[in-house]
Amino acid sequence: MKTSLTRRQALKAGTLAASAAFVNLPALFAKSPSYNAEFLSMTDEERAFYYFEGQEGVKARLFANENPFGPSEKAIAAITNSLKDSYMYPFDERAELQRKIAAYEGVSEDFILLGSGSTQLLMAAGVAFGMKGGEIVISHPTFDSLPKYAEGVGGKLVKVEVDSGLKQQLGKMADAVNGKTSLVYTVNPMNPTGTQVSGKEMRDFCNSVSDKAPVFVDEAYIDYHPEGLKASTISCVQQGKNVIVCKTFSKVHGFAGLRVGYCVAKPDLLAKMKPFSTGGFDLSRPAVLAATASVDDKAFLSMSVQQTEESKQLLYKGLKAVGANVIPSFTNFAMFPIDMNGSTFLSRMKEKGVLVRSWNFKNQDWCRVSIGRKDEMEAFNKALAQVV
Ligand SMILES: Cc1ncc(COP(=O)(O)O)c(C=O)c1O
């Protein structure tokens, strides 16, 4: 009895409603001329490059912005305890996680849409707002999952170049919005550049632009922002603006392999995304219970940010030693220009057991290095000094 009642409650809160939509996503994508089975931000070739047989020889895994300081002890205990009951769908537990996140974000439960990682929600938004030729204003470069999904269903991307300090140009992005704009996608702090804009700047941007088009703010790295959670645009959502805030447990919580993310927005905006989200059957029981244990674990979260900061200082020391001109980072990774072809640089670093990523934009090759444990940063610094 208890189960069916709480299931009904979950349905009421909208957590299961999306599963009723039965949208055939591959078929939808296949109709698009730019269909590509690889929608993640890494191609199969890139993934193969990072594969090490048995992971032997890897001294520093610094290519995916993972957080080796997590998950917390509480999250691990919750996972362990959840295993014996993992034959059951976590309906009640998922509803409880949704309640806990709503309380944490200061909104009601119907303002929350959960996903198995935020990529799933970026996909739902990319499809919902990119369909029918929707135009999406983005920064360039940016985290490209949502834009790729949007393009995959025939959406058009309107790219606004970052400035010389690799910061997003919010003024120019606002100018790019017009009657055809279906969504503005912004990331703060930004991946892959590591730059940030202040909370006030981003809120002012959201408040003015969201009257013309919905604004999607990807706050995957918001806990690393110098203003911390005060930099969030959640208050815009609380004030009823046309703003979708997206968060993930993959970064500061250290859940990249567990897969939990969520969006916070008015129910009418979430309703546009829900037909393309997997609804109530997406999150595993261990992931749900671990996230419930971790969501408001302030002591762990500040330890995680602090450890990252300590490793970042070590990284900066190594970069300074070789004269690298690092872009000040407000995330758990940093970017710096390299005087070498990106793939040559990656291969030489890999030979030393250090895995990083490279980009090319503004006619320049860049290395993006994730911030890991201290021993990993030491391995990175040593390899870098030999490679450059
Ligand atoms: C800006 C940004 N958003 C979203 C994600 C996706 O994270 P996940 O799907 O693990 O929640 C990432 C991953 O690196 C990211 O950098």
Report the CATH C-level class of the largest domain.
Alpha Beta
Task: Please identify which CATH superfamily of the largest domain we are dealing with.
Answer: Type I PLP-dependent aspartate aminotransferase-like (Major domain)
List of distinct ligands in this structure: pyridoxal-5'-phosphate
N-to-C SSE series?
Answer: HHHEHHEHEHEHEHEHEEHHHEHEEEH
Could you walk me through the main structural features you see in this protein, from its secondary elements to its overall organization?
With 388 residues, the protein is of the alpha/beta class. It folds into two domains: 2-27 and 73-294, Type I PLP-dependent aspartate aminotransferase-like (Major domain) (Aspartate Aminotransferase, domain 2, 3-Layer(aba) Sandwich), CATH 3.40.640.10; 44-69 and 298-387, Aspartate Aminotransferase, domain 1 (Alpha-Beta Complex), CATH 3.90.1150.10. The protein is built from 15 helices and twelve strands. The chain has helices spanning 2-12, 25-30, 44-50, 73-82, 91-105, 118-130, 145-152, 170-176, 199-209, 234-238, 267-273, 285-294, 298-321, 342-351, 374-387; strands spanning 60-61, 112-115, 135-140, 156-161, 181-187, 215-218, 243-248, 261-264, 333-338, 354-355, 357-361, 364-370. A seven-stranded mixed β-sheet has the order 2-8-7-6-5-3-4, sandwiched between helices. Helix 1 (2-12) crosses helix 5 (91-105). The longest helix has 24 residues, at 298-321. The termini are far apart. Bound molecules: pyridoxal-5'-phosphate. Pyridoxal-5'-phosphate (PLP) binds at residues 65, 117-119, 143, 187, 191, 218, 220, 248, 250, 256, 261. Pyridoxal-5'-phosphate (PLP) binds next to helix 6. Residues 62-380 form the Aminotransferase class I/classII large domain. One of its GO terms (molecular function) is histidinol-phosphate transaminase activity. It is an enzyme of class 2 (transferase). It comes from Imperialibacter roseus.
